[in-house]
Design brief:
This protein is mainly beta. Helices cover about 0% and strands about 40% of the residues. The strands form 2 sheets. Strands 4-3-6-7 form a 4-stranded antiparallel β-sheet, with no helix packed on it. Strand 3 and strand 4 form a beta hairpin. It is elongated and about 40 Å long. It starts with 18 loop residues before the first strand and ends with a strand.
Length: about 100
């Protein structure tokens, strides 16, 4: 962990976010099939990075580990914003991927 000069608390480093989040053509309510470009990490190999999926800003479920694809179930009804975040083995969480909207 690092702390910038004169900061009041420790900050965990942010991890690179997953990019190019898209809907796989197999998507159909209630299943959201997602594909993305995986993140890189300066300490963990790509096959150990976990991906979490959020729907409308709420954690939905853990996605895949080390892969750029997963299938999640709709937690909401109607238009749902979906993003993915990368989590390394130390628990550091990336910022969100680009958002996509899926009609659940």
């Amino acid at each position: 962990m690092t702390c910038a000069p004169r900061c009041t608390r420790w900050h965990r480093p942010r991890r690179p976010r997953p990019t190019n989040l898209t809907l796989n053509p197999n998507s159909g309510s209630p299943e959201i099939w997602l594909d993305w470009t995986t993140s890189t990490d300066d300490t963990d190999p790509p096959n150990l990075i976990l991906y979490d999926v959020y729907q409308n800003g709420v954690f939905a479920e853990h996605g895949s580990i080390g892969a750029g694809e997963t299938i999640v179930s709709c937690d909401f009804t109607g238009p749902t914003d979906v993003v993915a975040r990368a989590v390394d083995t130390s628990g550091n969480v990336s910022g969100p991927s680009n958002a996509i909207t899926f009609d659940c």
